[in-house]
Amino acid sequence: MAHIIAKTMTNKVPYFFWVVSIIGGLLLSSLVGCGSGRQSAPFSGSAASATPGVRPIKPATAKQRRAFEAAKASAQTGRETEALRAFQDFVQRYPSSALTDQALMALGSLSLKLDQPVQAQGYYQHLTQHFPQSPLAPEAHLKLGIVLHDLRQYDASINSLRLALGTLVLPQQRAQVHYYTGLNMRQLQRYVDAFEAFNRAVETSSDAALIQDAQRAMDTLIQHQLTPDDLHQLANRYAAAPQGAQILLRLAQHYREVSDIAGELDALQQLVNTYPEHPELPALMTRLTVLQSALTTDTSTLGILLPLSGEGELAGQRVLWGIKLALDSIRAAQPGLDIKLQIRDTQGDSAIASSALRSLVTEEHVVAVIGPLFSQVATDLAPLTEELGVPVISPYARNSAFPFLSPYAFRNSLTDEDQARFLADYAVRVLNMTRFAVLYPDEPYGESLKDTFIEHVINLEGKVVAVSAYPPDDKNFGQAIKRLGGIDDESLSDLLAGSGTKTTLANTKPYEAIFLPGYFDRVGLIAPELAFYNITNVQLLGTDGWNSEELIVIGENFVEDAIFVDGFFTDALAPSVETFVEQFISRYEERPTLIAAQGYDTLRLLVQLLQSGADSRFALRDGLLQLRDFPGVTGLTSLDQDGNAVKTPYLLSVKNGRIIQLN
C-alpha cells in the first residue's frame, strides 16, 4: 500500500488498490503510544497523551532540522524501518515543531510501505487533528480517506474525503476524492451516488488510468447494480450527456428482459431522439419498428413460411395441407374461431425467407410463424427471429441447431439423434441386448446416426463390436457386409468341408443386433444380402426412413421382425390419428406424411396456447416453453427449455408382412 500513497504524493492515482488485513481490536490510543505487540507504537509521551486540538507551531531549530533531514535521508536510501523509528522519535521529541506535520506525513507513507495501514491511519488522523492549518492537512485528509476505504471503514472514509474536497485545489487530487467516494458509495450500496461520484472523477481527472477505472465502475453499475428506477433517475439527470446513451440502452435491455414492450419502446425512442448520431442508430431504428409492430400484434394472425415452389415444393405443400386441415377441423368444432393465415413462399431460399419473415412481422403483425421447413434456411433465420421478437416454430428442420440459436426459435420434430438414442435405449433396456454392429451409409446423415447410437450404447454399458460403412449410392453391399463377418455359401462350404453340416453363423457372431440407419429402398436391398452372407437370426434396428410399405415389397420376408421408429404412424391406434388420416385422405387423396402430421400438430398447439390466454408474442413464446404433453397425432409433445420438442417415437415392427405399432 505504500506505493499507493507515494503515487498520491506525485498527483497520480493508481487504478488498483488491494485490501490489507485489519489488525483486530486496535484502538487509536494504541496508535499513539498505548499499544504493544509486534507493531511498535508510533510515538509516546506528550504527543500521544495530549488532548486533540490545534498545536501551537514553533519554528524549527537547527537541531530539529538535522534530526528531520537524517530521518528523511534514511527514507530516501531505502532504509524504511530506520526512517520510521527516526520520524517517530522526532514526533515524540518535537510535537509542536514546524516540521512535525511533515514528519507525520512521512510516517503515514512509510507505514503503508511497511504494510501497516492501521498505523498509517493514526498518523494521518494525528496530523489532521493537531495541525488542521498545515498546508499538508488537505492531502492528509485524502490519504486518510484512502486508507479508511481500504480498511473497509466506508462511512469514515466518506467523511474524510469530504473534508479533503473542501480544501484541495489540484484537479487531480479532487478527482481522487471523487473516485474513492464512488468506491465507498458502491460498497454501501448507494449506487446512484456512486455513479455520480465516478462521473465527477472522469470529468475532473487527467489521469488515463483513473478515468478508465471510473468508467469501468460506471459500466458495472449500469449493467448489474442500478435498478430500473435508478436508471430512470440518471437518464433524466444525464440527458444528452455521453453516459446517458448507455443508461438508456441498459434500461431498454431491462424492459426487453421482462417483456415490457411499452417500456423498451419508450427507452429506445428517448435514446434515438436524444442521440441522433449514435453509432448503433440503424439497429435501434430496426428494433423500434419491431416494437411498434409488437404493440399492434394481431393475435388472430399466424404466419406460414414454407417452400411452396422450387426445391422442396412437394414437402412444403404437404406441410401446408396439414396446417390447413388442422385449422378447418378447429373451425368446425368452434365456428366463431377467428384465426387467419398469412402464407409466404420461401422458394427454399434463405434471403427470400428472411425478407418474408420481416414482412410478416412488420406489415402483417403476425403473432407467430410456422416454418421454415428445412435445416439450412431455419439456421439462417434464427438470428432474425430474436431481432424481430417473434416465435418461429419449424415443423421439421431436424438436422440443425435451430432451437439453440435464438430464444424465439422452436422445433416440433424428432431429430435423428432422438431416434438413435431411443433405439439404443429400447434395445438395451427392453430387449436386454448388449452387443451391436452398425452398418451405415457413408454420408453426414449416416455418420450422425451412427455416432449417436454408439455413444448411447456405450453410456448404457453395451458394446458396439463391428462398424461398417457403404457408399450411399451403392446397390451391392457385399464388401460392407463382409466387414461385419458375413461369408457367402461357397466360402462357408470350404470352411466347413468335411463336417457334413450346413450351418449358419448364428452361434458365432459377436453381436445380437445390427443398427441400419438409412431409407427403405437401400435397407430393402441390404436385408436379403445379409442373409446371403449368412448373417441371420440378428435383430435389425432402423430409423424413420424405413417407414414405407415399399420396405416390405423390396425386402420381403428378410425384414420380418425388424424394428424401427418414426415420429408418425398412419395406422396408429389412437382415435385422433385415425380421424386425421381419414380427413387427410378424403381431402387430398393420399396418406399423410410425417411432415404433414407435424404441420397439423404445430397449428393446433399454437391455437391452443392463444386460446389459453397468450395475448402477445412474448406471452406466446413463454407458453411454448411451458408446453407439456400436448396430445398431437405425432404423439405427446412437450418443449424443453431450449425450444426443442420432446416426444416418444412410434416404435414399429414388421409382422406377417405388415408394419405394426409396438408401443
TrEMBL record:
TPR repeat start-end pairs: 175-208
SUPFAM superfamilies, sorted: Periplasmic binding protein-like I, TPR-like
Residue stretches spanning the membrane: 12-32
Signal as UniProt keyword: yes
Keywords: Membrane, Signal, TPR repeat, Transmembrane, Transmembrane helix
CDD domains: PBP1_YraM_LppC_lipoprotein-like (cd06339)
Residues in Leucine-binding protein domain copies: 301-657
Top-level lineage group: Bacteria
Membership in a protein family: Belongs to the leucine-binding protein family.
Entry protein name: Leucine-binding protein domain-containing protein
Phylogenetic classification of the source organism: Bacteria, Pseudomonadati, Nitrospinota/Tectimicrobiota group, Candidatus Tectimicrobiota, Candidatus Entotheonellia
